[in-house]
Amino acid sequence: MPRLADGFVNELKGRIDLYDVVSPYVQLKKNGSSWVGLSPFSQEKTPSFYVHPDKGFFKCFSSGEGGDAISFIQKVENLEFTEALEFLAQRFSIPLQYSDEPGKSGRPGISRSLKSELYELHTVATDWFHQRLLDDNEEAESVRNYWLNERKFTLKTASEFGIGYAPADSFALGKFLTAKNFTDSVMQKSGLFREGRGREIGPSVFTGRLMIPISDKLGRICAFTARKLAQTPEWGDRKSPKYVNSPETPIFEKGNLLFNLHLANKEISEESEFLLVEGQLDAIRCWEMGFRTVVAPQGTAFKDSQAMLLFRSRPKGVVCLLDGDSAGQKAALSYVSIFLKAGLDARFAELPKGTDPDQILMAHGKEAMQKVIDGARPMVEHVIRQKLPDLRTATPKQKESICQWMFTALVEIESRITLEGYFEQLGRLLNVPIDALKSDFYRFRKNRTPAYRKSSGDQELASKEPDRLTIVEEDLLYILLHDDRIASPLAHTLDISWVDSRPVSGRILAKILSETVAEGTSLSPAQIEDLLEDDEERDLYHRLLLQEIDQTENGLSLRLARQCVTVLYHRYLKQQEDNIFEQLKEAEEKPEKLKELSQALRSIRQQKKSPPLLEFYN
Fold it and tell me: In 3D, which of 255, 120, 118 has the Cα closest to residue 189?
């Protein structure tokens, strides 16, 4: 597996501006030498997300997140470190530099990720499937007839969405990908093949089907939905299902993506709404007819994680265009609490029974669909109409039941302003006093609160929960990162064996001091970052670097560093002393050994009186 070259990480960071990395996700405004905006990691009304392009770091005070360009992309896109590197390299057109040899530091390079290979395989497979749709043979002609004449889509749309055809030959795809030098291991993990005999790749999961590629929010193809056709083989005694989806793989989790989000995100704004439909072909039809903010769940119930994907795009809201049958309406009710929890405003359009967006657009055109969208009802009104079709004859008990249902959805909302808005809608539509609604709601929320959280005594104890024990390695690392005068004298004063390398801070500290001795001088921030080997180390490094050190007291960093060195020195001697005591138990009948151990104890006690003194060089 190829490896990214040593030093590429720092070269990548040096060639990109943190502002350019963050600005597609956060609307930033100038604030002195930095930029500020709303957090992409949490819901907030007041901006607390700061970007410092000159320093190459961001800090989110509402969520506590912080770091550099790579860690930002990791967090906001839910990527691993190597994936984030590949993502940034692609976005800023910086060629990836691979090396099969260890770098200058002797450490191996960064492996190209399995996920990257799987994305590449899916892209190649998509192109192959699409070409099979265009082949000049009877099999392909039959599929084109279905696409063009039965479904009334165009070949331009097929090209735009990468629509293809999986031929009846179930081994054709495997042979093609093998010829493209994809390994059996990667092919097996792609989810596109069944198990074969021994180590061989088995037949394709998809045979004789229309292929619809599924992309993640970055536009990377990660899976397929396959639609049954006339030539699709039946499954023995069972009828072949109408749709077959890729299984979940390292790059595909159904609940963490939405079909067409990568394209809809390019069209969405704070003044526009997402359109949420049920199926991929519905979404493709809406897109083709000009409704460009359309998305669809991937064959599963709508989830919190998918709502958060929409929320991060900062839309005006969401319009649900769910099928007009009872199942579609029941699903719509379950979406209400999900939207409220995510902080999304939503409206619900009731489609005529037995219809879907594709059928409405084909039968009545764009104007009819726009009329459906314009008539969509706000969430509160939709809930009331679903649960209480005839409001005029509603009893007080029925109104109370609806309020209790809404309270369950509203209880997650912390914003008083948002709650007031929903109380106003609920009170107006049910014709009940808002004060009564508020009173019932706060009683409802209080009754749902666990007893231990209502106890003032317990709250007092919780507020006095002690902070974590200080790790001296972390304190010393913090000082070292904020005062570059410390590194060289520290490296020549502190014995590496005194450092506990089990905590993350100890690992980083030991590496920095070892490299400082080897280089003969303090390391630059780029050199230090090149030593970091995993997300734990990078997260701690960025967290410590973002913290401010008190510059008002002259000589503070040297005094604190001396204290840390003394603690490490005494801790090391204590460990030596404890080791000698253990040996003394076993040497009771060995006079010579007892004498040797006693002398060692006296030596340690003498050493305690004169710990090494850390001094700056002149």
Answer: 118
Tell me the Cα Rg of the chain. Answer: 31
Residues across the chain: 618
Tell me: pLDDT of 299 over 70: no
CA–CA separation, 259 and 299 (whole Å):
10
Query: What's the average model confidence in pLDDT over 489-506?
Result: 84
Angstrom distances, CA of residue 279 to CA of 207, 282, 310: 21, 5, 17
Q: Give the phi and the psi of residue 357 in degrees, each rounded to 5.
A: -55, -40
Cβ(600)–Cβ(580) below 8 Å: yes
Nearest-5° Cα angle at 522, 521 to 523? 115
Element (H, E) at 110: strand 110-111
The answer to whether the beta carbons of residues 613 and 564 sit under 8 Å apart is no
SS3 per-residue string spanning 147-213: HHHHCCCCHHHHHHHCCEEECCCCCHHHHHHHHCCCCHHHHHHCCCEEECCCCCEEEECCCCEEEEE
User: Model's pTM, two decimal places?
Assistant: 0.66
Greatest alpha-carbon span in the chain? 104
CA 181 to chain CA centroid, Å, is 31
CA angle 532, 534, 537 (to 5 degrees): 60
pLDDT average, residue stretch 496-513: 86
Helices in 241-378 by DSSP H: which ranges? 261-264, 280-288, 304-311, 326-342, 357-364, 366-374
| Whole-number Å distance between alpha carbons of 460 and 477 | 34
Tell the residue number behind the tokens 């040497």, with chain if given: 587
In this prediction, residue 96 has a pLDDT band, given cuts at 50, 70 and 90, of: confident
Amino acid symbol at 102: P
Neighbours of 55 (CB within 10 A): 15
C-alpha distances in Å from residue 515, one per residue of 418, 512, 521, 531: 54, 5, 9, 9
Beta bridge partners of 318: 274, 346
CA distances from 593 to 82, 524, 577, 588, 599 (A): 54, 49, 15, 9, 10
